[in-house]
Amino acid sequence: MTRETGRPPARTMHLSLKAGERVYINGAVVRVDRKVALELMNDATFLLEGHVLQAEEATTPLRQLYFAAQTILIAPAQAGPARALYARIEEGILAATTEPAIRDGLAAAHALVEAGRAFEALKLIRSLYPAEAAVLGPSTPLPDMPPAALVPPGRSGPRRRPPLRARPAPSSDKA
Predict the structure, then answer these.
(1) Residue 155: DSSP 8-state
(2) Is the pTM above the cut of 0.70?
(3) Do the bridges between strand 13-17 and strand 22-25 make them parallel or antiparallel, or are there none, so unpaired?
């Protein structure tokens, strides 16, 4: 443990990214243009693009909880409202289920979020998806869009990507 923080010393973290892949580090979005390996040498919060859940994909209670925890991790400026949203969603899930696996998982995820370990909480919440699916059953219709509280301000509807633009072919003046 370090004297300044009372936490164990930071470990080096190695990340391998493919061309065009993104990683969220301490609230910043980093996109790489070629295959690259990053070494985080101090204590940083990060989330790989493959683990990022878009708001429109938060169609079940646990996915909504995941989205709130994810926001705590990748948008530090929104951590306060995201924590409040996390608490409301968690309370609703606990009120609606008696499933021990989900209740125990939520208790553990809550402790991780409170301890500032949102990344570990995300992994734990993802592991609860099969239990949630068993409770909801295949016949339970899921909403097409998440509740308005999960859609970031200034956004409505699905995210649209700009069309790809063709680069002009290099001119060849050889005759």
Answers:
(1) -
(2) no
(3) unpaired
